[in-house]
UniProtKB/TrEMBL annotation:
Belongs to the DapA family. This is 4-hydroxy-tetrahydrodipicolinate synthase. The record marks T49, Y112 as: Part of a proton relay during catalysis. It holds the Pfam family DHDPS. PANTHER family: 4-HYDROXY-2-OXOGLUTARATE ALDOLASE, MITOCHONDRIAL, DIHYDRODIPICOLINATE SYNTHASE. Its main location: cytoplasm. NCBIfam families: dapA. Homotetramer; dimer of dimers.
């Protein structure tokens, strides 16, 4: 087993900034992207769930990729979320993302219709054939209602452009087996599992929390790679209260990130209330005091 990292190690699932009137704020997006890259992100995932993709138009998705590419230059990986419940539409978004300057595609399992596994495989394969870009399979059955089963994942791994997985399956056993058995690069999509998955050969993470704590998240991987596993575990543990408050306390990650960074969300999401925002702020401000992460 050789760990490869087609998009780097530390990826941020970036929010999409909007103006007070609700329009796409490309200037703010470019500034945020540049800051995240400057603070240790190897790449950015745009137009994902954290980026409020269900409420942005196709034209806005392409404009965001173009603006971020211009802001960060050619070096960081830009992975564009193109997943929909419609294979044809997903393929169209994939071609649009390639034209806009993306380096890869994040493709979620078709949701709501709950297709059987042969149809799941056909969906990913058709999207992979639509462009020359590498594909990251997004396995998040808690949201889509459908798991990418292990045999399906093994089949997908045979395609030369299906290279990675964003794993939100909460099945570390299966993920570890597939890391060992396939060439797929596994990225944790659940911050509490970033270090455990990395320790069994994962490639890194795609993180919502990285919008606000990119250095702290990367420091965990840096410590592990340096052989200081005790420090890696300690830094990972320091992040858990903030992670829990942002990702597991009843509010969507988009809402909790924007409670810390500012900016409106689009309906049906609603901003965090004062009490929740104050709690998040307290945990965020306490994080650097716990231990240096630079």
């Amino acid at each position: 087993m050789t760990t490869h990292r087609p998009f780097g190690r530390a990826l941020c699932a970036m929010i999409t900034p909007f103006t007070d009137s609700g329009a796409l704020d490309l200037d703010a997006a470019g500034k945020l992207a540049a800051r995240l890259v400057g603070e240790g992100c190897d790449g950015l995932v745009l137009n994902g769930t954290t980026g409020e993709s269900p409420t942005t138009s196709d034209a806005e998705k392409a404009a965001l990729v173009r603006a971020v590419r211009e802001a960060v230059g050619p070096a960081p990986s830009l992975v564009a979320g193109v997943g929909t419940a419609d294979t044809r539409h997903t393929a169209e978004l994939a071609r649009q993302a390639e034209e806009a300057g993306a380096d890869g595609l994040l493709v979620v399992t078709p949701y709501y219709s709950r297709p059987p596994q042969d149809a799941v495989a056909a969906h990913f394969l058709k999207v992979a054939d639509a462009t020359g870009l590498p594909v990251m399979v997004y396995d998040i059955p808690g949201r889509t209602g459908t798991r990418v089963e292990p045999d399906t994942m093994r089949r997908l791994a045979e395609h030369p452009r299906i290279t990675a997985v964003k794993d939100c399956s909460y099945d570390l056993l299966t993920a570890a087996r597939l890391i060992a058995e396939t060439p797929l690069a596994y990225y944790s999509g659940s911050e509490e599992l970033n270090l455990p998955l990395y320790a069994v050969g994962g490639a890194g993470y795609v993180s919502t929390v990285a919008n606000v704590a990119p250095r702290a998240l990367r420091a965990v991987l840096d410590a592990f790679d340096a052989g200081d596993t005790a420090r890696a575990a300690r830094l990972h543990a320091r992040l858990l209260p903030l992670t829990e408050a942002m990702m597991a306390a009843g509010l969507p990650g988009t809402v909790t990130v924007k409670a810390l960074l500012g900016g409106p969300v689009r309906e049906p999401l609603r901003p965090a209330g004062r009490e929740a925002a104050d709690g998040l702020r307290g945990l965020y401000e306490a994080l650097p005091q716990a231990e240096s992460v630079v």
